[in-house]
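Supplementary Methods, section 5.1.

A reviewer requested that the exact input to the structure prediction be made available. We therefore reproduce it here, unchanged from the version used in the analyses.
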Amino acid sequence: MKIITAITGASGIKYGLRLTEFLSNSEIENHLVISEAGEKLIEIESDKEIGYFRDLADKNYMNNDLGAQIASGSYLTDGMVVIPASAKTLGSISNGISNNLITRAADVCLKEGRDLVLVPRETPLNEIHLRNLLKLSKAGATILPASPGFYHQPSEISDLVDFVVGKTLDQLGINNELYDRWE
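The structure derived from this sequence is encoded token-by-token as follows.
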């Protein structure tokens, strides 16, 4: 299985880091793209260096590399996650603006009918955000807001992060035990 992970400039780098860590400890091939704003937020919100993120992935791409494998529909992947997904990135994807590798790879997933999971972290949402999310949902993307549940009695921030990442993996059909499921 091949998954593309994109980390953009929305607060919530811990979600992208946890997903990348999970994939690095699995048999799943992870293709990682980090936006320029995502790189800045890694410095602000994480105690990890950008190299730590990149070392976890099987393949790394620069966001300006529109000639990368994942920019082509003929390069087969099983899907993509944008986590966290900034409002800017969501707006670009929803309007077919493929001006960087993240938006192009997402466009490829939509046009090829592959899984695309978008994890917006923006709050509150205005009408433009909501319209973009609706357009993306109608186009086939899964919208998975970074809204953790509390029925599993989380005791640490990592429990909340694992809930969102576990739900994200569920949408890709990837087995995980990151959170306690409702019984």
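DSSP finds seven helices and six strands in the chain. These observations are discussed further in the main text.
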